[in-house]
Design a protein that fits this description.
heterodimer; A: about 230 residues; mainly alpha; MetI-like fold; 8 helices; B: mainly alpha
């Protein structure tokens, strides 16, 4: 199938998923940290988180990625010179996942903040009154309820994120996009291979949507639904 | 920080900013032009009309913009019929392909935003319009669309900002927008920090301007109307 390039495209698709999942992990961590900073009493943390979410929203992911990939390489070269390290090169995978994770961490910050605020305050107070520690209250009581509110925007962000990973091909990662490009230029049939890549992305997004629909249902157990 | 290199490159950033803004505006204008009728069809009672529009938005929203851009710019040239057709001079131009890809992309998102805004119009208003004897066209023009346009403002503001940032992809098909100017400066001086930070600051400034514009629009058109209707 696909003139023998099918396996190559599938390998690229695997890398695309790996980039997306690693970025998701980074983004989720940054999102939780950012939300905690935004909700904290510390003014400095609040401002820092605000600057983070504002700046990220205003800069294209492509520019951010070039900044981290090329700029980071320069920085590491200078450090290597100063401390007499051996040559260190930035791995495009690391640069790509860091960039995408860093960008979507800003969106996750807003999602988690909103979800935290959506859980009634009494829930946490009751948990504390039962003698749970703040960490226990978060893990056992507030967290699961937060997740229910966060699922819808999370699924949206995840879909945007999978599609955003296509840009890592521009810093030399052999993801789905890059492999489609190579196959297209060696067979002189770029349309076929870009269409195939597009179809694979469509499969990812469709499957993700089904998965999130199932999760939403699962986390909505016990919540009354009203049909208008 | 090498400010001298930045100063030397400022002219190319300025012309890059013009390209970026022009690409964004053109894509948004064409996107909206097609989204308006298509969003009405998207909510059409017949499944045979609404279905294809839904499929279009589903496919476009489910695939990366970069794939769409490459499909049009690099992909279409594969077919001899396309190369022989009257449209080939346009399809060979990177500007045309970029605007086409961006317009198709934003069109799909705008259809969904408009469709959602139209569905949010209270049933009572539509019933009232029907009771007044309005035809579907008159009702759309006088009741549904004015309400939908106001209601879509926040979501559409986000889409406009997304589109502005998406135009950075135009630099991958040789257009000299802000990102293209940054790439050029980087290859000329090998100053990646200065080059891409300058680009980031310009994008940030344009974004801030757009955010302010949409806040003003919401204050002008959305807020007074919501206060009255509640």
């Amino acid at each position: 199938m696909l003139q023998g390039y099918g396996a190559s495209l599938l390998t690229g698709a695997g890398l695309t998923i790996a980039v997306a999942l690693c970025s998701l992990a980074i983004a989720a961590l940054l999102g939780v940290a950012g939300a905690m900073a935004k909700l904290s009493r510390n003014r400095f943390l609040r401002t820092a988180a605000q600057v983070y979410t504002t700046v990220i929203r205003g800069v294209p992911d492509l520019v951010m990625m070039f900044l981290i990939f090329y700029g980071g390489q320069l920085l590491i070269n200078e450090l290597a010179e100063r401390f007499q390290w051996n040559d260190v090169t930035i791995d495009p995978f690391v640069a790509g996942t860091l960039t995408i994770g860093f960008i979507f961490g800003a969106y996750m910050t807003e999602i988690f903040r909103g979800a935290f605020l959506a859980v009634p305050h009494g829930q946490r107070e009751a948990a504390l009154a039962y003698g749970m520690s703040p960490a226990q209250a978060l893990v056992r009581i507030v967290g699961p309820q937060m997740l229910r509110h966060a699922l819808a925007p999370l699924s949206n962000t995840w879909l945007v994120m999978i599609k955003s990973t296509a840009i890592v091909s521009l810093i030399g990662l052999s993801d789905l996009m890059q492999r489609a490009k190579n196959a297209g230029s060696s067979t002189q049939e770029p349309f076929l291979f870009y269409a195939a890549a597009g179809a694979m992305y469509l499969v990812f997004t469709s499957v993700s949507e089904l998965l999130f629909a199932w999760l939403r249902q699962r986390y909505a157990v016990g919540v009354r639904q009203v049909r208008i | 920080m090498d400010f001298d290199a930045i100063r030397q490159s400022l002219p190319s950033y300025a012309s890059g900013a013009l390209v970026t803004i022009w690409l964004t505006l053109a894509a948004l204008a064409f996107g909206m032009l097609f989204a308006l009728p298509l969003s009405i069809l998207r909510g059409w009672p017949s499944r045979w009309v609404a279905g294809p529009v839904w499929l279009f938005t589903y496919v476009i929203r489910g695939t990366p913009l970069l794939v769409q851009l490459y499909l049009i710019y690099y992909g279409l040239g594969q077919f001899e019929a396309v190369r022989d057709s009257f449209a080939w001079p346009w399809l060979r131009s990177a500007t045309f392909c970029a605007i086409a890809a961006f317009a198709i992309n934003t069109c799909a998102y705008t259809i969904e935003i408009l469709h959602g805004a139209m569905r949010a119009v209270p049933a009572g208003e539509i019933e009232a319009a029907r009771a007044m004897g309005m035809t579907r066209g008159v009702m759309l023009r006088r009741v549904v669309l004015p309400a939908a346009f106001r209601r879509m403002l926040p979501a559409y503001g986000n889409e406009v900002i997304f589109m502005l940032q998406a135009t950075a992809l135009a630099s991958t098909v040789t257009l000299m927008d802000i990102t293209g100017a940054a790439g050029e400066m980087n290859s000329r001086f090998y100053l990646p920090f200065e080059a891409f930070l300058t680009a980031a600051v310009i994008y940030l400034a344009i974004t801030m301007g757009l955010v302010g514009l949409f806040h003003a629009a919401e204050r002008r058109w959305l807020m007074p109307w919501q206060a009255r209707s509640s």
